[in-house]
Design a protein that fits this description.
This protein is an alpha/beta fold. The chain contains ten helices and 13 strands. It is globular and about 60 Å long. The N and C termini lie far apart (about 60 Å).
C-alpha cells in the first residue's frame, strides 16, 4: 500500500488509545495469513464494481479511495488493484433485475468523491423504479468529518430517503466535531446507523461497547451491526473468537436496551454470506414446553400454544 498517511483530523486524535491501533498502518501486517478476498466478492461481481450476493440488494464499490486505511480492512486487495466501477453497467444490470430494491454504495469510501460525481450516482439509482432504498457506507464521521459541509448535505438530501451507515469502533472516535456533523446530517433528514468491527485489544469488552453504543443513540444514531473481523490478509491479530463475542453480547443484553443493541454478525468463508448470532436462550424443548434462560441467567418455563 503506497499511501498510508493520515489526514490532519486523524493525526490530531491518533494518540487516543481506541484509535491508534486502528489506523497506524504497519507494513509487517501484510505478511500475516488470511484470504485476499474473504467474502468471495469476485465470484458475485456481475458488472464492473457491482456485487450481487443477496437477492434484493447489491453493493457498489465505486472507488478504492478512503479517508484512512484501516489495518483490518477486508478489501485490502482493492487498495492497489482496483478493477474500477462502471455506472452504465451497474444501471443496466439493476434495471434488468427488478428483484433488486436496495443499493449499498461502498468502496473505499464513496464520500471521497466530489459532490458532482456522487450526485450523478445517486440520481441514477434514485431514478430506477425498483430501487427503494439507498445506503452509503462511509468512515467520514470518524475519519474526516470536515467533509460534511452544507454543499454535501444539500446534495444528499435531494435523494431522501437516504441511509448513511457509518463505520465506528470505539467511543474515542466520538469527538465534538463528530457530534456536530452527525446532528447536521440527521436534521437534514438523513438516517444514520452504525457498523462496528469487534477488534481484539481495541473494543473486545462489554464496557467499551456499552459506552460506544449508548453514546451513539444519544446523538440519534442506531447501532446496526457488530461484525466479527473478517478472515482477510493481515487480520489475525484483530480477530475475536465467536465464544467471546457471544459472551460480550450476553453482557450487553443485561446492561443496555434493545435500542442501543446492534446485531452480532460475521461473514462465512467462500461467499457463504452473513450469519447472525445471539446467545442461546433456549435450554430445552419437549413438544410445546420450553425452558429458556433469561437475561439474568434464570431458567424460565414457558408453555407454547
Amino acid at each position: 500500500m503506497a499511501n498510508v498517511k493520515l489526514n490532519g483530523y486523524l493525526a490530531s486524535i491518533i494518540h487516543k488509545e481506541g484509535i491508534k491501533k486502528q489506523f497506524k498502518f504497519e507494513t509487517k501486517l501484510l505478511k500475516q495469513n488470511g484470504t485476499e478476498d474473504p467474502l468471495n466478492e469476485k465470484r458475485f461481481t456481475k458488472a464492473k464494481g457491482l456485487i450481487h450476493r443477496y437477492p434484493d440488494r447489491v453493493v457498489l464499490t465505486i472507488t478504492n479511495r478512503c479517508f484512512a486505511y484501516c489495518n483490518f480492512c477486508f478489501r485490502k486487495h482493492n487498495w492497489d488493484r482496483f478493477d474500477g466501477f462502471d455506472l452504465n453497467e451497474a444501471e443496466d444490470y439493476i434495471r434488468n433485475h427488478p428483484s433488486i430494491r436496495e443499493v449499498l454504495i461502498s468502496g473505499g469510501d464513496p464520500l471521497t468523491l466530489p459532490n458532482s460525481e456522487l450526485e450523478k450516482i445517486l440520481k441514477t439509482f434514485r431514478d430506477i423504479p425498483n430501487i427503494k432504498i439507498i445506503r452509503i457506507g462511509s468512515r467520514v464521521l470518524t475519519a474526516f468529518p470536515q467533509r460534511i459541509d452544507k454543499r454535501l448535505i444539500d446534495t444528499l438530501k435531494k435523494y431522501l430517503p437516504l441511509w448513511l451507515a457509518i463505520h465506528i469502533n470505539h467511543p474515542d472516535e466520538i469527538t465534538e466535531l463528530f457530534k456536530t456533523k452527525a446532528r447536521a446530517l440527521i436534521e437534514s433528514g438523513i438516517s444514520i446507523v452504525s457498523q462496528t468491527v469487534l477488534l481484539k485489544g481495541i473494543n473486545d469488552n462489554s464496557h467499551t461497547l456499552e459506552k460506544l453504543f449508548c453514546k451513539l443513540v444519544e446523538i440519534g444514531i442506531k447501532p446496526y451491526y457488530l461484525f466479527g473481523c473478517d478472515q482477510a490478509q493481515a487480520n489475525e491479530d484483530y480477530r475475536v473468537s465467536i465464544d467471546k463475542a457471544l459472551k460480550i453480547m450476553e453482557n450487553l443484553r443485561f446492561r443496555i436496551s434493545g435500542l442501543c443493541m446492534p446485531v452480532y454478525a460475521f461473514d462465512l468463508p467462500e461467499g457463504g454470506g452473513k450469519v447472525v448470532l445471539e446467545p442461546d436462550r433456549l435450554i430445552k424443548r419437549v413438544k410445546n414446553r420450553y425452558i429458556f434462560r433469561n437475561f439474568e441467567g434464570r431458567e424460565i418455563h414457558y408453555e407454547d400454544v
